[in-house]
């Protein structure tokens, strides 16, 4: 607002009204609402500028010396120096009885709206003020410093005080979040993401999907059991959010860009599996989202704090923005939530992108996770590089161990990355993906590089682009891309092609049901039809995020 200046034509009208006495401090302070004051000013400053002018004037009304403040406001809006229009300013200086307690409600709305980026009522502004006061009061109680916290020296009393403070923050943030208006594009995005949300419901799939890259960390196994509490208790989930918000390291998390999601009204705050507040009205959806978000938030926050401690012990500056970003990016990528654009500059497009792609952040995270730069670039925080390497080796090692044990117990396993079964264990018709969904990326890369593919049925290796109606690199890439489409986008693509991504004939009823029924129910149904003997074990594997294919 400091740089705001009225256009010349509006400046002239405004100054002439001041000269004539049509605009006076008493008049400006007399209105009962921001809306009334804006209606009065509109004829002088123009409808397109009235809210900025009113916000500036109201901010000056908060000052004890409103006359001086109004002089400053006029100078700011008109760009004129005091000596040029002394008669105008002297007229303002002579005014008295400018403000009384009853008129406060007349200017709170626009000021609060300016700060929050949304229109709010006086009652809402008052509520925010009350919540903020509660937070300020709670913050005065003894709490651990950042150094004490990351060193694990927080006392029970300090923790209790911190959590009480965190609860006031959570209530404030939740309330403000609900004030954001739902605009048309959000309604469309909300509806478009309902199928994606429904597919992710009724399971606890976060650990072995987005959490795959963290399987070797202790924080993974601490967050795992907590997930069930979040699913069945809103209170437990709220306590987690309060805990994270009140940590002395939360500012560092925010500065670094750590992904802390929420079950909120604002779509961009959701995990991309649950970007639809409309679907939350359906039984089971909200609990599933709390479990998903709660597990990932605790895992990310705990891991970030641990890496922050390691960086501090290694002599790195834990106040350096780039160090914090490197640590946060490592945690984000290894929990399936990569940045959209440099520095996550296009984060607000995720809800829309998610309506077209199955999981844009997960796709970005997978690419980043296997990017050699993360491990080799000396400019990246040494602590972040070491953590990333440890996590990658750990997750790959655990995956290889699981596959090895499965092979020893009779399951078929595939080590050739040109085969679709790479990274999977096969028992009968059931194909178990233990790579957290990352295996297909390796398969695509291997096929494109070698220009060959391996059949999962005959084990025959075939050169791409050779023979009658051959499969080409373009076909391989197109099929991969179709498999990464959102439920809605894939429905449109399958309808247009007349077949789905694996070549089966498109049937409207089947296609609709397959995009609205939770994946775990679909997989259990297939198991009951094809191989009931493995239904229980396979169902548990699928429940926690293990990938299943029955064919």
What would you note in describing this structure?
With 551 residues, this protein is mainly alpha-helical. The protein contains 27 helices and six strands. It has helices spanning 8-20, 25-30, 34-45, 50-61, 66-78, 86-93, 105-116, 122-139, 146-150, 156-179, 184-192, 194-199, 218-232, 234-246, 250-256, 285-313, 321-333, 350-353, 360-369, 373-376, 382-408, 439-450, 473-483, 487-497, 508-514, 519-530, 535-543, and strands at residues 412-413, 424-427, 430-433, 452-454, 461-463, 547-550. The strands form two sheets. A four-stranded antiparallel beta sheet has the order 1-2-3-6, with helices on one face. It has a two-stranded antiparallel sheet with strand order 4-5.
Our count of helices gives: 27
Radius of gyration: 29 Å
Strand content: under 5%
Tell me, briefly, the overall form. globular
Number of strands: 6
**Most strands sheet:** 4 strands, antiparallel
Extract low-pLDDT stretches. Answer: 80-108
Counting helices, strands and paired strands, the structural category is mainly alpha
Strand order of the largest sheet: 1-2-3-6
Arithmetic mean of pLDDT: 80
Helical content (DSSP H or I, runs of 4+): 55-70%
N-end to C-end Cα span: 63 Å
């Amino acid at each position: 607002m400091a740089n705001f200046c009225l256009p010349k034509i509006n400046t002239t009208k405004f100054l002439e009204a001041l000269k004539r006495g049509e605009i006076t401090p008493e008049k400006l302070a007399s209105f009962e609402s921001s809306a009334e004051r804006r209606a009065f000013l509109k004829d002088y400053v123009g409808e397109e500028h009235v809210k900025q002018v009113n916000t500036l004037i109201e901010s000056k009304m908060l000052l004890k010396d409103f006359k001086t403040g109004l002089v400053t406001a006029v100078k700011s809006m008109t760009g004129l120096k005091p000596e040029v229009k002394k008669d105008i300013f002297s007229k303002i200086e002579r005014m008295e009885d400018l403000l009384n307690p009853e008129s406060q409600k007349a200017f709170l709305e626009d000021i609060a709206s300016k700060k929050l980026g949304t229109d709010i009522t006086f009652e809402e502004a008052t509520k925010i003020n009350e919540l903020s006061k509660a937070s300020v009061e709670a913050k005065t109680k003894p709490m651990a410093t950042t150094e004490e916290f990351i060193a694990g020296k927080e006392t029970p009393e300090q923790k209790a005080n911190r959590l009480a403070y965190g609860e006031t923050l959570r209530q404030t943030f939740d309330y403000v979040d609900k004030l954001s208006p739902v605009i048309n594009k959000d309604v469309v995005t909300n509806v478009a993401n309902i199928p994606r949300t429904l597919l992710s419901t009724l399971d606890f799939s976060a650990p072995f999907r987005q959490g795959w890259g963290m399987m070797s960390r202790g924080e993974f196994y601490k967050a795992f059991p907590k997930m069930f509490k979040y699913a069945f208790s809103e209170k437990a989930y709220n306590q987690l959010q309060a805990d994270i918000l009140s940590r002395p390291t939360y500012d560092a998390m925010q500065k670094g860009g750590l992904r802390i999601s929420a079950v909120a009204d604002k779509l961009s705050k959701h995990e991309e599996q649950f970007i639809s507040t409309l679907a939350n009205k359906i039984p089971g959806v909200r609990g599933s989202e709390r479990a998903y978000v709660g597990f990932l938030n605790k895992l990310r926050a705990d891991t970030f704090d641990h890496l922050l401690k390691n960086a501090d012990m290694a002599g790195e500056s834990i106040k350096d923005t780039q160090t914090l970003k490197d640590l946060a990016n490592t945690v984000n990528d290894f929990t399936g939530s990569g940045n959209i654009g440099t520095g996550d500059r296009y984060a607000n497009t995720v809800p829309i992108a998610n309506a077209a792609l199955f999981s844009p952040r997960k796709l970005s995270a997978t690419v980043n996770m296997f990017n050699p730069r993360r491990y080799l670039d000396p400019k990246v925080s040494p602590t972040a590089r070491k953590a990333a390497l440890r996590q990658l080796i750990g997750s790959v090692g655990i995956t290889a161990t699981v596959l090895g044990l499965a092979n020893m117990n009779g399951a078929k396993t595939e080590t050739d990355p040109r085969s679709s079964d790479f990274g999977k264990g096969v028992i009968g018709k059931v194909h178990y993906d233990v790579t957290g969904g990352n295996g297909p990326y390796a398969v695509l890369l291997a096929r494109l590089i070698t220009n060959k593919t391996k059949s999962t049925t005959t084990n025959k290796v075939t050169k791409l682009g050779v023979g009658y109606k051959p499969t080409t690199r373009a076909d391989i890439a197109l099929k991969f891309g179709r498999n990464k489409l959102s439920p809605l986008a894939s429905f449109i693509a399958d309808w247009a092609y007349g077949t789905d991504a694996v070549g089966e004939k498109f049937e409207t009823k089947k296609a609709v049901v397959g995009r609205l029924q939770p994946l775990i129910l679909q997989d259990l149904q297939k198991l009951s039809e094809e191989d009931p003997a493995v239904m229980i074990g396979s169902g548990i594997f699928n429940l926690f995020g293990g990938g299943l294919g029955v064919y």
